[in-house]
Design goal:
- Keywords: Methyltransferase, Transferase.
- This protein is α/β, with parallel strands linked by helices and about 280 residues long.
- Helices cover about 25% and strands about 35% of the residues.
- Strands 3-2-1-4-5-11-10 form a seven-stranded mixed beta sheet, with helices on both faces. The chain has a three-stranded antiparallel beta sheet with strand order 12-13-14, with no helix packed on it. A two-stranded antiparallel ribbon has the order 6-7.
- Helix 6 runs parallel beside helix 8.
């Protein structure tokens, strides 16, 4: 069963009071970096996985995306998203991220904000995202940084006076489930190494464009003094990747005279227009 803490009344009550839930994207310490990684959205079809209150969906339409679909497992999240959205070009679907099934090459852009560390099937999800993206499309997501998720405690070490000493890292190479606490409830997260995130994206067929480990903006560091500790270790990881245009190629067979038989040279080219030979075999 997929995890859905947001339909727990106590958890959701605490979540909707968070600054990013009340004030939106500008209250999220990492938003200024994620926004900078967004591709051109004008006239694009966008999929938001784990859309929550729909902030990113509405932002995409503000940037004149042609249509946006938001997917979330939580009915509470989607109810709030619908209440805050008055736009027929935005639609919401109740579905776990891992279960998405969209048409091949349906979207120009797929985004995800801080949800993949809650799902087990990241590698499979990357392949599904690749399949539903158009060639040249963008896959942009953020997760809690592997340095943050390595330990179940996910907290600083403090001295006897309560002062922060350092952020401990342990069991980094041991991937998998972490039982931890977020807001009022115990939650399950899935720790992956940085190399796993990167390699799973590459294995799905993507070309990685940018990797970021954001810190809060200067304005937020000034206005929220406790944010200065977020510069001592990375809390978030962001990756932007592009779906490389796929062309299965075509085979050309060219008969050549060779006594006493005729052989064929089999060319495999990546494009019928640009004959870059990637494979060559002689068939006898």
């Amino acid at each position: 069963m997929k995890q859905n803490k947001y339909d727990n009344a106590n958890f959701f009550s605490a979540y909707k009071k968070m600054p990013r839930s009340v004030k939106g994207l500008e209250a999220a310490g990492e938003w200024h970096v994620l926004r900078g990684l967004m591709p051109e959205l004008r006239n694009k079809t966008v999929l938001d996985l784990g859309c929550g209150f729909g902030w990113h969906c509405r932002y995409a339409r503000e940037q004149q995306a042609s249509s946006v679909i938001g997917v979330d497992i939580s009915e509470n999240m989607l109810q709030k998203a619908r209440e805050n959205t008055n736009d027929p070009a935005i639609s919401f679907i109740k579905m776990p991220i891992e279960d998405i099934k969209f048409t091949e090459s349906q979207f120009d852009v797929v985004i995800n904000s801080l949800a993949f560390h809650y799902i087990k099937a990241f590698k499979i999800t990357c392949q599904k995202v690749y399949d539903c993206l158009k060639p040249g499309g963008t896959f942009l997501f953020s997760v809690e940084h592997p340095i943050f998720t390595s330990r179940s405690e996910q907290d600083w070490y403090f001295d006897e006076q309560g002062n922060i000493l350092h952020w401990p890292v342990d069991n980094y190479q041991t991937e998998g489930l972490r039982k931890t606490t977020f807001l009022t409830e115990n939650v399950i997260k899935y720790h992956r190494t940085l190399s796993t995130y990167i390699n799973d994206i590459i294995d799905a067929g993507f070309k990685i464009k940018t990797v970021e480990e954001p810190i809060p903006s200067n304005e937020m560091l000034k206005s929220v003094p406790e944010m200065k500790d977020e510069t001592r270790r990375p809390m978030f990881l962001m990756i932007s990747a592009k779906k490389v245009s796929t062309n299965k190629g075509i085979y050309w067979t060219v008969p050549i005279l060779r006594a006493p038989t005729i052989s064929k040279i089999l060319f495999f080219v990546t494009s019928p227009i640009i004959p870059n030979i990637s494979r060559l075999r002689v068939l006898r």
